[in-house]
């Protein structure tokens, strides 16, 4: 995905009480690099988001369920995730240009990564890398956790997972609070 203006889009959660995983993820861009577990192993998956202007996008989550953390509004601008089988390799690169003015539509504590949300998933067993490089992230991205970037490197015991955040200008973003303290105005990192 290169040389685009990606503006004014929204990813919405499913109605309360419905089951699914595409719950307010990736208002501007949604990338899930995965291997179909029923098709075997050893695949190589690569995706690149390059030289785009990604601005004014939203991830919406109005679900008031007590399990709100499951219904997160993630990645107002970009949502990127990997999950590979053993022997598989995934690389997602997010690089160049501007990511600004993105986030959830309401100040919900169940939101992460106003500009970019990146995660390697615990059900991924391959070599999995998300590279976020040479971006201007801000101003005015906002989220409860990681106004500019929320990055969660979560690995299985057999996985080799990496999230690299290199040579970015991360500025003037907001990690807001509703009932508790917002985490990471610029970036929020979680390693499990």
Question: How would you explain this protein's 3D organization?
Answer:
Helix content is about 0%, strand content about 45%. The chain is mainly β.
Taking the alpha carbons of the first and last residues, their distance comes to 30 Å
Shape: globular
Question: What is the helical fraction, as a range of percent?
Answer: under 10%
Query: If you compute it from the alpha carbons, what radius of gyration comes out, rounded to the nearest whole angstrom?
Result: 16 Å
Number of helices: 0
Mean pLDDT: 82
Note poorly predicted spans.
Answer: none
Q: What is the helix/strand order? A: EEEEEEEEEEEEEEEEEEE
Outline the biggest β-sheet: 7 strands, parallel
How large is the share of residues in beta strands? over 45%
Q: What's the quaternary structure here?
A: single chain
The total strand number stands at 19
Label the structural class: mainly beta
Please tag this protein with its features.
192 residues; 7-stranded parallel beta sheet; 5-stranded parallel beta sheet; 19 strands; 0% helix; globular
